[in-house]
Amino acid sequence: MVWLSGFVGLIGGFMAGQLLLMFLLRHRSNQEILSDRSIRWVYGLVNWAVAALGVWVAVSMYSRYAG
Question: 0.70 cut: is pTM over it?
Answer without folding.
Answer: yes
